[in-house]
Amino acid sequence: MTATGQDTPLAGRVVAVTGASKGIGWAVTQALTARGARVIAGARDVSGLSLDGAEFHPLDVTDEASVAAFAGAAVRAGVAALVNNAGVGSFQPIEEITLAEYHRVMDTNVLGTLLVTRALIGHFRERHARGGGSQVVNVTSDVSARTFANGALYTASKYAQRALTQALAAEGQGYGLRVTEIRPGMVDTFFAGSVQGAEHKAEWLRPADVADAVLYALTAPPHARIDEVLLHPVVQEVAF
Ligand code: NJP
Fold it and tell me: What are the strands, taking DSSP E only, across 121-172?
């Protein structure tokens, strides 16, 4: 039972969330704990964070040892679902992309998704052997399948994250894993060094809108697989 008295499939479930300290990840963590889930929440800086039902762990998704420690905590807690949400944005013309920026974006968005997922697959296989199912929800982007000027690096990372997501879905079918890609358009967060609540973002999606999409995937009945959710603020151009 949740605080609201409603029985939901999330009550008592353990969900690991990356990039949980702010923006979309924080909203996902809030939404999950409000429905009675236990969240193993990770970000590089988790100082000062606390929320009933959430356990905060320092996590750098680009660092194998850090990922191993986070995954260990999630496995010990009995994790049943992973939300790969940690990500960074970077927008410039191709001739200005430095090697350092390339690695920051690709390592966070692509390698990070790979490392955290890989660290939990053995546990998901064991759950399957015991008759349990598992879920992975990857927060990618509306631009995981289209691109634009100044978007080469970011969209390359998101196309790659989409490919990882779809390959995982195919592989995971063999061990009871359901995989969902969440593809939000413009969301009012701290993304790419921006300011949350800035006036020009007034009509953008709220982090809670994306959290609702994540919850939709996580609460789908066991016989249903939500492959992807594409959502935009109405002010954004219609694009697929
Ligand atoms: O961004 P932000 P969003 N290891 O900056 C964490 C996608 N998306 O919520 O580590 C672990 O408010 C960081 O914490 P910290 C986007 O691509 C967004 O908007 O302490 N965690 C913070 O908790 C991304 O995949 C928009 O710096 C790391 C969080 O990630 C996802 O949404 C549009 C980390 C980022 O919070 C969430 O981004 C779209 C690391 N190495 C897709 N590096 C949009 N906002 O418009 C960062 O299409 N974090």
Answer: 134-139
